[in-house]
Every structure is written in C-alpha cells, then in structure tokens.
Specification:
single chain; alpha+beta; Muramoyl-pentapeptide Carboxypeptidase, domain 2; globular
Length: 149
C-alpha cells in the first residue's frame, strides 16, 4: 500500500463513519489517532515548543516536505504561522477523482483535531482557517497559527 492509497482510505473511512455513526464518532476517531499516533509531534512540542512544531512540519525530513506540500511556515515573535497553498492529500483525492469527505465535518478538519490536542497539552493554542468552496468543501488550502496561551 502506498501513501496515496492511505489518503484515499482515510477519506473513505471518515465518510463511512459519519454516515453510519455520526460526526461525533469521526471526532472520536480523530481524538484516538491524535492520542495514539501523534507521538513524534508530542515529543517535539514537549521538548522544543513552537520550534518543535516547525521541525515536525517543515524541518529536515518534516511531514510537509515528505508529502510534497506547497506551503510556507515561519516562527516570529512567539507565533508560528503556516500557509498550505496546496494540500497533497486533497490534491491526490482530486487527481484520483474521489469525492472529498464533506458532511457535518470535512476532510481538512482532521488536522486541527489531530494536532490541536497535542499543542493544548503544552499550553499552546492552534487556530486554523480552512478555505472552502461555495458548497463548504475544503479546497486544500488553509492557514494556521500557534502561540503560547
């Protein structure tokens, strides 16, 4: 299985769970993934704070670089700012002609649900602005900020 298959399976799983069990069940899944699988981010934030977040996403071998995202990230005056110009996951789903998860929640909501709790654990706030189309579906573009509470 490739990462591209994983993205598609992730998307379809979100749709299935919301259809069968509701949006709260999707949120529960995201909470579980955050707690059990965001261990590397947790370690970096605990040890390095905002610098750890930068390292996680944009550092040497960071997730956004590995995923070939088109993004900008900066850390200035105690505020991390990120801009995702082209999300590789949403782009992959579009390229594969797949309907992107959109219901009460949408595919892009999983980022805040996964990463926000890790940041909060160490007294950081994360705010996300997800671009959506006229139907409220994520477009693969977003921005986020994080700072000490």
């Amino acid at each position: 299985m490739t990462v591209y298959n994983f993205i598609e399976i992730y998307n379809e799983t979100f749709k299935y769970i919301e259809k069968e069990y509701g949006a709260e069940a999707v949120k529960d899944l995201w909470q579980t993934i955050s707690a059990q699988w965001c261990v590397h981010l947790d370690d970096l934030v605990r040890e390095k704070g905002l610098e750890g977040m930068v390292e996680y996403w944009a550092g040497n071998g960071g997730t956004l670089g590995r995923e070939k995202a088109v993004y900008e990230i900066s850390l200035q005056d105690g505020v991390l700012a990120g801009i995702m110009h082209k999300c590789p996951s949403v782009g992959e789903l579009i390229e594969r002609n797949r309907k992107i998860y959109h219901g009460e929640l949408n595919y892009c909501n999983h980022c805040l649900a996964l990463y926000g709790p890790v940041a909060n654990r160490y007294s950081f706030e994360m705010l996300w602005n997800i671009d959506t189309d006229e139907a409220g579906r994520c477009t693969g573009k977003c921005s986020w900020t994080s700072y000490k509470k």
